[in-house]
């Protein structure tokens, strides 16, 4: 279990974005560039200031993970008729010239 707020690191995967629903459930997307499948989405449950991550779906591309994140969040919201209360998205620096 991990405390929310700081972007968590789970099994080497840095959490890049999350959505938290009013019932304490949520969906997260993580990245570990050194893993065989560098992207993952997890469900999590938040209670008493900690998060328990479970049911990982592992992906080879960011695009597939983003689509899975969106689908999992939408499906959960519809199934349980809950609203999102928090979105977190880590913005990484790029090497692009401005």
Can you offer a commentary on this structure?
The protein is an alpha+beta fold and 98 residues long. The chain has one helix and six strands. The chain has one helix at residues 62-80; strands at 9-10, 13-21, 25-31, 39-47, 50-59, 84-89. Strands 1, 2, 3, 4, 5 and 6 form a six-stranded antiparallel sheet that branches. The N and C termini lie far apart (39 Å).
- Extended strand count: 6
Please give the alpha-carbon distance between the first and last residues.
Answer: 39 Å
Order of helices and strands: EEEEEHE
Query: Rough shape?
Result: globular
Question: Structural class per helix/strand content?
Answer: alpha+beta
Strand count, sense and closure of the main sheet?
Answer: 6 strands, antiparallel
Radius of gyration: 13 Å
Write down the overall mean pLDDT.
Answer: 89
Question: Which spans of ≥5 residues are poorly predicted at pLDDT below 50?
Answer: 93-98
Question: What are the salient characteristics of this protein?
Answer:
6-stranded antiparallel β-sheet, disordered C terminus, globular, 98 residues, alpha+beta
């Amino acid at each position: 279990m991990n405390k929310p707020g700081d972007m968590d690191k789970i099994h080497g995967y840095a959490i890049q974005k999350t959505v938290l629903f009013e019932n304490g459930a949520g969906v997260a997307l993580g990245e570990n560039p050194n893993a065989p499948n560098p992207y993952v989405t997890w469900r999590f449950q938040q209670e008493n200031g900690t998060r328990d991550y479970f049911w990982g779906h592992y992906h080879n591309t960011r695009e597939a993970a983003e689509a899975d994140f969106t689908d999992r969040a939408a499906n959960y919201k519809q199934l349980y008729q809950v609203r999102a209360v928090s979105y977190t998205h880590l913005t990484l620096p790029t090497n692009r010239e401005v």
